[in-house]
Amino acid sequence: MADIRSYRGVEPQFGERVYIDEQSVVVGDVTIGDDSSIWPLVSARGDVNSITIGARTNIQDGSVLHVSRPSTNNKKGHPLVIGDDVTVGHHVMLHGCELGNRILVGMSATIMDGVIVEDNVIIGAGSVVTPGKVLRSGYLYVGSPAVEKRPLTQSEIDFLPESANNYVLLKEDYLLDVRPVC
Predict the structure, then answer these.
(1) What's the domain range around 39?
(2) Model confidence over 67-105: pLDDT tens digits?
(3) Rounded to an integer, what distance in angstroms lies between the CA atom of residue 7 and that of residue 122?
């Protein structure tokens, strides 16, 4: 069974058909949408702010999801919001940012506080998106710091929901072999 914990009396909430690997940790104010998946060694810690993960979104192995607390300079802090049909690659760091729908975050990328990623975006492996940056819809971003490289092709845009659906299918296989959390 996955390590699912409350924090200050707030329990994580799960939609239908969610898969959470037994080697992952989900703490506190975390909401995960229908058909989403959390893979091995993921840490999702909604302790000082909230984490919201949409439907059909996958968070792959070794990723870290965290937030920033409210402060005098930032009354709301930075929650983490991840939309629908998002693929978060292996070993990604997401901290207090907002990701729209149909996004692919490449392996080992880092996205920092206050970043807004619009719909239909690919972020290349190893990229670092610095605080407060806005990534416009329909582009590939790469580098450290990440920069707009080029517009996405129609084939790449079409692939984004397909990538997410591949993990919906995979988590269904896993749910057949393990006891689901919800």
Answers:
(1) 3-177
(2) 999 999 999 999 999 999 999 999 999 999 999 999 999
(3) 33
Alpha carbons 123 and 111: distance in angstroms, whole number: 9
Beta bridge partners of 140: 122, 150
Copy the structure tokens of residue 56. 């059909």
- Structural domain count of the chain: 1
97, exposed or middle or buried, with CB in 10 Å at 0-12, 13-18, 19+?
buried
State pLDDT tens for residues 135-168: 999 999 999 999 999 999 999 999 999 999 999 9
* 170 belongs to a structural domain: yes
State the Cα–Cα distance between residues 172 and 170, nearest whole angstrom: 5
Cα 125 from chain centroid (whole Å): 15
Whole-angstrom distance, CA of residue 127 vs CA of residue 169? 28
Query: With a threshold of 0.85, does the pTM exceed it?
Result: yes
- Output Rg (C-alpha) for the chain, integer angstroms: 15
Q: Provide the CATH number for the domain around residue 44.
A: 2.160.10.10
C-alpha–C-alpha distance, residues 125 and 143, integer Å: 8
**Residue 171: φ, ψ to 5°:** -65, -30
